[in-house]
Amino acid sequence: MLPRFIPSSCRALKASRFISTSIHINSAETRNDSPSDSTSGSDSGTASIIPALTKTERIQISKHLDSLLPQYNRIGSKPSSSLYTNQASFKAQTDAREAAEIDSLTISSLVSAGVHLGHTYELMHPLNLNSVFGTRNGINVINLEKTIMALRRAGNFVKTVAQNGGIILFAGTKPFMRKLTIDAAYRCDQFYVVDKWVAGTITNSSHLLTKQSNYIVDRDDVFINQGSFQLPELEEKTPEIKKKKSRYEARQEELLKRTEIESNNVKTYKPDVIIALNPYDLTTMLNEANRAYIPTIGIADTNFDPTHLSFAIPGNDDSASSAKIIAEYLSSAALIGKNNRQRIITNNLKKKTRTAA
After folding, report:
1. Of 156 and 100, which is predicted with more confidence?
2. Angle at which helices 320-356 and 144-163 pack, to 10 degrees?
3. Which residue has the higher pLDDT, 34 or 163?
4. Which residue has the higher pLDDT, 256 or 90?
5. Do 279 and 339 belong to one domain?
6. First and final CA of the chain: distance in angstroms?
7. Which residues form a coiled coil (predicted)?
8. Residues 136-161, mean pLDDT to the nearest whole number
9. Who contacts 271 (Cβ-Cβ below 8 Å, separation ≥6)?
10. Is the confidence at residue 9, as pLDDT, over 60?
11. Model pLDDT, residue 335
12. What is the chain's alpha carbon radius of gyration, rounded to the nearest angstrom?
């Protein structure tokens, strides 16, 4: 039997779709309407008009809808056990997701960290108009909805890079960013830069990094077992000895030649993605990364040009709490990608051993 057309005036029947069976809506039959109304409705060929909802019924519907909101918010937050081979891998992946703290990233947590605070209106870059919510007391307020969207987009990219075995570089050169940058890099077993960025590290790495690979502070303070020289005893020098190179000088030249050859054989690797926590102070690094086609992620404050970054995250780069919550989120995404890579490698090894057996 085909369903009958419901006219627009029957609000009660439309609302009944969104409530459970425990909520009873008084229809025409439960209200004991007169049979003449029902017959007249059937004769006309249209549905009988049901009275509007009462105040108590509307309150019940609104309460029931409010109770369903947490269930919809939890959709997709917990992984399914059917996606994993055994209980151990499922537990490891669940622990990694809990450590990632991705589900706890909310607007309230960003507000408490001060991510929404920008610079004054006079210092605002015109390209940041889309990410600014408004101005209060002369200070720009960043739209945190755009921040969450940019964070999730950047987190997915970092997770993909880590899952493919890429190199991630965390850069934070401000004094208060030193510890949190190192912690974020150690958390996902990646690399970091907390000192001044040396110009040419990316574009001229073949020449610059090889010169910095081996550096001897004091040539006299070297182990003898490593093939180096031994400090000779002090002897009286004669004019005949001065014309020739002493044993000490000959060993010095030999050591310098050997270290130069070893430094030229050192391999250098460029990062696959750079995360700049203070990109306003790292414009030289960003220019080198763009020239070398390396994607960059950074905190774009209201006074910074976001076009210098591949993934610009609107936020406050002058606060330690703001930089910490963003760095932890990205490092957690990298940790998830690394765990996924290890799980894929172990599964492939198991498949190879099974086929070989």
Report:
1. 156
2. 30
3. 163
4. 256
5. yes
6. 60
7. none
8. 91
9. 166, 167, 168, 169, 191, 294
10. no
11. 92
12. 34
Find tokens 């020449």 and name the residue.
Answer: 207
Percent of the chain whose predicted confidence (pLDDT) is above 70: 60
Q: Where are the alpha helices (DSSP H) in the chain?
A: 11-15, 35-44, 55-73, 87-100, 107-113, 144-163, 178-187, 205-211, 239-243, 247-264, 283-291, 320-356
Residue with tokens 């073949």: 206
Say whether both 199 and 312 belong to one domain. yes
Q: Facing residues of 17 across strands?
A: none
Question: What does the alpha-carbon distance between residue 115 and residue 216 come to, in Å, rounded to a whole number?
Answer: 44
Domain count, the chain: 3
Q: Does residue 28 fall inside a structural domain?
A: yes
- Give the pair of three-digit tokens for residue 335: 């940790």
Helical ranges in 225-316 per DSSP H? 239-243, 247-264, 283-291
Instruction: State whether 274 and 134 are in the same domain.
Output: yes
Both tokens assigned to 195: 């000192």
Please report which confidence band the pLDDT of residue 268 belongs to, taking 50, 70 and 90 as the band edges. confident
Per DSSP bridges, beta strands 168-171 and 191-193 are: parallel
144, two tokens: 């945190």
Residues 261, 304 within the same domain: no
Which residues, other chains included, contact 130 with Cβ-Cβ below 8 Å and sequence gap of 6+? 146
User: Residue 254 is part of which domain span?
Assistant: 214-229+242-265
Among residues 212, 244, 214, 245, the alpha carbon closest in space to that of 228 is found at 214
CA distance 246 to 66: 89
